[in-house]
Amino acid sequence: MNDYMVRATAADAQIRAFAATTRDMTEAARVHHNSSPIATAAVGRLMTAGAMMGSMMKNDTDVLTLQIKGSGPIQGITVTADSRGNVKGYAFDPNVMLPPKNGKLDVGGAVGAGVLSVIKDMGLKEPYGGQIELQTGEIAEDLTYYFATSEQIPSSVGLGVLMNKDNSVCCAGGFIIQVMPFIEEEVLDRLEANISKVSSVTEMLKDGHTPEEMLKQVLEGFEVEITDTMPAQFTCNCSKERIRKAIVSLGKKEIQEMIDAAEPIEVNCQFCNTQYHFTVEELKEILKQSK
Ligand SMILES: [Zn+2]
Asked: How far is the CA of 90 from the centre of ligand 1 (A)?
């Protein structure tokens, strides 16, 4: 696994920045779900953002969920991440195919109109949540809008996934640049000028840019200090025991119906597509634990 992300500050901490290379986690998601290029790109973009946004959380046990629900054929995407670079994600319909738009994968068309929810579970009674209307469905623009409106942090988000001709993932990655409230006007002007002329994330990745080099390009002319480097990876923490608990929570009536069907059942983990099997005997045991 070669995925990693960096955190940095620039211009005397008036700017904070994140960048990641996420080819391997995106390819892992593609293999788990045997997903189409457009679904792989959509999930890869959201997982890349998830990795970086997860690393903004403070505690090891904090969990970030990014959820998109849209009117397009992909229907939705769910990604979760912790603060240590463990990310997983899936598209509701991983088989979506659409013609390219302007020579690119039409992620916006696959997602359609809808909402993006950001849920941070930090072990408090109520998880923190923010929700916005999707702006383009291209994900990076939607997250930029989320940061501006829900967190009041002016940000620039760039995300990219490039596929090989054989439909495996060539490269994936992205950056998040955020400015602090005390930013000086000339620093902001310069940053905005940089961002307007920076090449796309996929261009930078295709040219072999590392996360550090991506930040160097976006933050050209600033003193950049890399403060942290962290590995990132696709990790699913599912297990038969977790699936068993999910079945218990369905309630007696539903479990009894499964038992009455007299057939073993098969449950797929949505995140990694692993199949778990339960015999009728096991279901009877589960029924005893259920309320
Ligand atoms: Zn799983």
From this structure: 10
